[in-house]
Amino acid sequence: MARKNVLLIVVDQWRADFVPHLLRAQGRESFLKTPNLDRLCREGVTFRNHVTTCVPCGPARASLLTGLYLMNHRAVQNTVPLDQRHTNLGKALRTIGYDPALVGYTSTTPDPRTTSTNDPRFLVLGDIMEGFRSVGAFEPNMDGYFGWVAQNGFGLPEKREDIWLPEGEDSVPGATDKPSRIPAEFSDSTYFTERALTYLKGRAGKPFFLHLGYYRPHPPFVASAPYHAMYRPEDMPAPVRAADPETESAQHPLMRFYVDSIERGSFFHGAEGSGATMDEAELRQMRATYCGLMTEIDDCLGRVFDYLDETGQWDDTLIIFTSDHGEQLGDHHLLGKIGYNDESFRIPLVIKDPSAGERAGTIEEAFTESIDVMPSILDWLGGEVPRACDGRSLVPLVKGDRLDDWRTELHYEFDFRDVFYSQPQDTLGLDMDDCSLCVVQDENYKYVHFAALPPLFFDLKNDPREFVNLADEPAYAALVRDYAQKALSWRLRHADRTLTHYRSGPHGLIVKDR
After folding, report:
1. What's the CATH number where 340 sits?
2. Is residue 484 part of a domain?
3. Domain around 19
4. GO molecular function: any one (predicted)?
5. What is the count of structural domains for the chain?
6. 473, 455 contact by CB (below 8 A)
7. In a domain, 209, yes or no
8. What is the pTM of this model?
9. Distance from C-alpha of 337 to C-alpha of 56, rounded to nearest angstrom
10. Residues near 361 by Cβ (< 8 Å), separated by ≥ 6?
11. Which residues contact 9 (CB under 8 A, 6 or more apart)?
12. Which of 39, 60, 236, 279 has the largest CB neighbor count within 10 A?
């Protein structure tokens, strides 16, 4: 059988409701221009109800690439090590003869039991997940990118990250319509694209697997020209939030903590003050810049797609477009990827299978999760999906097969312990191991269970934006119970099963799945 190509595109912090194809399918005019993503949607299958199973970056990428829920891989926050015993997509691809290439990053901290405490990988936010071959590293410390910028003759300031400040010495840090100090030809999106094209051209038509990662539209929310001025703030969707931060905060102790504690400085270099104090004009400007960063990525993807077209590889390549997580963008008076709201967890997923045929251009309504990407790739390539994997292959759904035993709810988790920055466990009076929540959500209801805080329950038909918590309402008591039981059953069903199918006996070791 001929070897196949796979291009896995993973952007950072891209919300599902910023996918023009989905907006148009709802009869809404798109405020965002992404012609190359549009092409992918026309030729592939777009998944409407897709979530990351956890946030932020490190945990989300661990789930994406291991196919495991957070409760099983336990890399619960950025900088928390990933247990070396877990297989991942890179390792699994090697078992079927692929040398998986990676452009970008995985934000993986190594298992400390496999190395020394002096290992410099423990000095950074994350490194490359074992099994992948880096052909365009961003980690550690973005050295690969900044070295490329300097090599191309652009003078780096003493503090390298200042290239992402707005142009002009008099710029006020915060949401801005000014361009970044780094020109688009030296942006990080251009860097990743150059590395991808260098790798693909080096393959010279030989089969490949490429994980192509992009840092954007991750903050800082400052775009290079001309993308900084591509969108008008007044054309952006208005934020969805309560009348004021105090009203929003009253919903739950965790919501109050984040409304009070999120700082603008994490999203705009040098900015001060709380994100909850941003007015609507500032939020719309931030969203306009966010869209500019997205269109820059789309233009970059166009270069990659053009090369695949020119070399006759477009029709031989499985292309998957997704993100690690979403972004609150001021909704619910929040910034970042946190908490339990849809804006942080609903993400894009588009799969272009060259053999999809009449399914091209369709929108799939089934509930899908980031843990499904790994088994889908292995299934498509004819590999074996590890038994421990919590996800399921999406290949049947892409081909249009209806699966009677498909999941009936979405599931995701968030571990909100933080030992370096905001430290919610101290403010909320919790032990770090009590700082967790899980969500069970379908088209009707959303239940949020906390290890040591009150639950939340939303009626999504009547309250799609999740403003009214019904967990303590007597009329909803039976439903709250039912969804709590769903959450418990889900956790029991997905408890680690790496070795549970092995049996020893009179005739030695056997494998027994049923």
Report:
1. 3.40.720.10
2. no
3. 5-469
4. sulfuric ester hydrolase activity
5. 1
6. no
7. yes
8. 0.97
9. 6
10. 41, 42, 43, 44
11. 212, 213, 214, 301, 319, 320, 321, 322
12. 60
